[in-house]
Amino acid sequence: MRVTSGFWVSAFIRRVGLENGFATLRRRGAEEAGAIAVTVSRASDRLVALYLQAPQSAFGEDRPQDRLFVPAWPEIFVEEEKVRDKLEREIRFDPDLWIVDVDDRDGRSFLDIART
Q1: String of b and e for 4-29 (b: at least 16 CB within 10 Å)?
Q2: Residue partners of 19: CB distance under 8 A and separation at least 6
């Protein structure tokens, strides 16, 4: 059984803090099953990464409860405006979307990334 989106986001924000990163909730989505997007800002170059939940086909049959993420672009870190535009489109498509912002000097996402 998969944990709710609200519980996952709360635990994720706590995990980032425990690993000396900083995470904030920008947008609250549907408590039970809203999709989650995570932005990662790194101070060195002011670029931002956007990670979206992976499609169900990326989940292993042995662990279907996992939440895996994929970068929105192959280059991973892009200009902030590109991320903002993509998030606006995602919200129009899914108004239940959660958005978590991570600030980390080293650009760590703290996420489980789907292997393609």
Answers
A1: ebbebbeebbeebeeeebebeeeeeb
A2: 108, 110
pLDDT tens for the chain, residues 1 to 116: 678 999 999 999 999 999 999 999 999 999 988 899 999 999 888 899 999 998 765 555 555 457 899 999 999 999 999 999 999 999 999 999 999 999 999 999 999 998 75
| Strand intervals (E) in 1-116 | 22-27, 36-41, 48-53, 69-71, 77-78, 98-103
- Give this prediction's pTM: 0.90
